[in-house]
Write a structure and sequence with these properties.
Length: 308
């Protein structure tokens, strides 16, 4: 049988500041689909014995768990179990090379399987972009295992707020690009990154065979009712309109051209527990890259709410 995934070669992170973690692999395959049942995702897992709760970090497109390197130390120091996973097709996780894998339901099932396998509870979701598009649909089915969310520059499909024209254009361009240059994108949009950091974002993709997720994930974004995943996002929107988690914080970048401040304020109105939109003035789309500026205050805020 033809393999449905490529294994990611070892990524050398020895020279990367603030990213010296052990990686683990979880079998989160889709058991109902034979060719996808062997899928494995990579993840960082620190403070595994903590009973304080779990901070679960879910990145977006085209990044991986490296995105969270400025925030992970604050989470670990706070004593929470700290997990940052790489979505299928990204980071150190298996790279699907079969287009049939790429459905909203499959990605969502991977996340649900991961949570179930690790028996996670008292979860606070940390989500960026696609991480939020997927992650914001999770609490409605098992609200009792979630205690909070921290949402960075994310859309809930095209439901909670209409996406910007720039994001729509980004989706179309990404769908057409079968050899996406991640290094160049991150360098262009995050001037604070050094060369080693830009290279780290390209490292999971040795050549274009590994890059299918980079143009397939945008192609399944829930833009309209005809798109698989739209109905799930609508149900999630309705849930958030009538429910909330103990602490939900929304952050956006003042210089984000894709998910602009007016759009992120609409997301904040839907899910935020403090009624605020926390705008990071220097940040663009990849808000966690500025985590060194606000991480301490963010986790102090979370600590106060969890002790109430």
């Amino acid at each position: 049988m033809t393999e449905a995934f490529l294994k990611t070669p070892i990524i050398n992170t020895s020279r990367l500041k603030n990213f010296q973690y052990n990686f683990y692999f979880a079998d989160v395959g889709l058991k109902s689909i034979t060719k996808f049942k062997s899928l494995k995702v990579a993840y960082i897992d620190e403070n595994q014995d903590s009973n304080k709760g779990t901070n679960l970090f879910i990145h977006g497109h085209p990044t991986w768990s490296f995105l969270w390197r400025h925030l992970l130390p604050f989470s670990i120091k706070s004593g929470y179990r700290t997990i940052a996973l790489d979505l299928p097709g990204f980071g150190r996780s298996d790279k699907p090379i079969d287009k049939d894998f790429f459905t909203f339901a499959n990605y969502r099932t991977v996340l649900k399987n991961f949570i179930k396998i690790h028996k996670l509870n008292k979860i606070t979701l940390f989500m960026h972009e696609w991480g939020g598009t997927l992650g914001l649909t999770l609490p409605m089915e098992e609200p009792e295992i979630f205690q909070g969310s921290v949402c960075f520059s994310s859309y809930l499909g095209n439901c909670a707020t209409p996406i910007s024209q720039s994001y729509s254009s980004w989706i179309e361009k990404s769908k057409e690009n079968n050899d996406f240059n991640v290094r160049a994108l991150m360098a262009r949009t995050n001037r604070i990154l050094n060369l080693a950091e830009c290279n780290a974002y390209e490292a999971p993709f040795p050549d274009k065979k590994y890059k299918l997720a980079l143009n397939m994930l945008p192609s399944i974004f829930p833009l309209s009712e005809e798109k698989e995943g739209y109905e799930i996002c609508m149900r999630a929107k309705e849930w958030w309109e009538n429910n909330n988690l103990k602490k939900s914080i929304v952050l956006g970048g003042a210089r984000d051209p894709l998910i602009t401040v007016d759009k992120i304020k609409m997301i904040s109105k839907l899910i935020s527990s403090d009624g605020l939109t926390h705008v990071i003035n220097n940040a663009g789309h990849f808000v966690p890259e500025w985590g060194m500026e606000y991480g301490k205050e963010l986790f102090e805020n979370l600590e106060m709410s969890n002790s109430e």
